[in-house]
Amino acid sequence: EIDFIANKGSRKYYIQSAYSIPSEEKWEQELASLLKISDSFKKIVVVGGEIMPYTDDNGIYFTEKESLEVITSMIARTKARYLGSGNILLMWGYLAVFSSILVWILLAATRQNVWNWLWFAIPVIGMPLTSIMARREKRTDGVVTYSDKITSHLWSIFGVSEIVLTLICLGFSLFGGIKCWTAMTVYTIIAAPFAEIAQGLIVKEKSLTWGGIVGLAIGMVLVCCVTGKIPLLANWFMPLFILFWVVMMIVPGHIINHKAKKG
Q1: Which long-range contacts (CB under 8 A, 24 or more apart) does 225-228 make?
Q2: Neighbouring C-alpha atoms within 13 Å toward the C-beta of 121
Q3: Helix (H, G, I), strand (E, B) or coil at 111
Q4: Considering the entire predicted model, what is its pTM?
Q5: For residue 73, which of 140, 117, 18, 7 has the smallest C-alpha distance?
Q6: What pLDDT, on a 0 to 100 scale, did the predictor assign at position 149?
C-alpha cells in the first residue's frame, strides 16, 4: 500500500515514508509497493535522517528538497480535503430530507402508495452526483491518503449492499408477492450510522462520530418499532426519519465545511 499519492498540476508523486531502513529486508519492504506501479510518475521514499539525493536503478528518486516541497503541498491540501467531503454529506442529507418531505406530502394528499417509488430518487440522483463531486474534489485537493481510501471503501460497500438488498426485495415482490420493503428502511438506519461512526473514528472527526451515534440511536428506536409490529405511521415516522438524515449528514456536513473555511 502506498503511503501517500499527491498531485501537483499534471504531475503525480507516489510517496513512501519510513523512520529508518536498518536492513535490506526493510528496504525491500518499503520499495515493494512502488515497484508494482507501472506508470512513469515520480516515486519518492522519505527516510528519517540525512541522505544524499540520488535515483536508484528502479528510477525511485531520493532528494530532501523535493520531498519537503511535495510533503508540504500535500499537508496543505490534506487540511482542506474535508470541504468536499462536507459537500457530499450535505448533498445526500438535503436530497434525503427533500425526498422524505415530498413523499410525505404526496402520500398525505393522495393516499396512493405509488408515491413510495420516489424513494428510489435518492440513490438514482445521489450516486451519480457523488461520483461527479468526488472526481472534482480529487482534481482540486490533489491528495489521496490511506484514510480516504478506507472511508471510500466503507461507503462503497454500503452502497453496493443497498443495491443488492433492493434487488432482493424487488424479487420477493415480483415473484412471491411478498412486500418486504421495510427491510430497506431497517438496513439503512442501522448500516449507514455504523459506516459514519467508522469514518469519524478513522479521520478523527467528532461530528461524524456523534452524528453516527445519534443516527444509530434513532435507528434502534425504529428497529424496535418494526420488531414490535408497531405501524410506521407517517405522522411520527417521517419526522423521525428526516431527523435521522439531519443529524447524520446535514449537521456534520456544515460543521466540516465550517472547519475547512476556518483552516
Answers
A1: 226/182, 226/185, 226/186
A2: 16
A3: coil
A4: 0.68
A5: 7
A6: 73
Question: What's the length of the chain?
Answer: 263
Nearest to 5 by CA among 51, 54, 80, 70: 70
CA dist 123 and 212 (Å) reads 20
| Gap between the Cα atoms of 190 and 253, Å rounded | 20
* Nearest alpha-carbon partner for 142 in 41, 223, 64: 41
Query: In sequence order, what are the beta bridge partners of 61?
Result: 44, 55
Helix, coil or strand: residue 16:
strand
Contact in structure between 60 and 31 (CB atoms under 8 Å): yes
Amino acid of residue 197: I
Measure Cα distances from 196 to 76, 144, 208, 209, 223 in Å: 25, 19, 6, 6, 18
Residue 61: helix, strand or coil by DSSP?
A: strand
Q: Residue 91 carries which side chain, given as an amino acid letter?
A: M
Which grid coordinates belong to 253? 456536513
Average pLDDT value over all residues in the chain = 80
Residues 53 and 44: their CA atoms lie apart, in Å, by: 11
Please give the sequence-ordered ranges of beta strands (E in DSSP) within 71-177, or none if there are none. 143-145
Which residue, 92, 157, 154, is CA-closest to 122? Answer: 92
Q: pLDDT digits over 107-123, tens only?
A: 999 988 889 889 989 99
**What is the DSSP annotation of 107-144?**
HHHH--GGGGGGGGHHHHHHHHHHHHHHHHHHHHH-EE
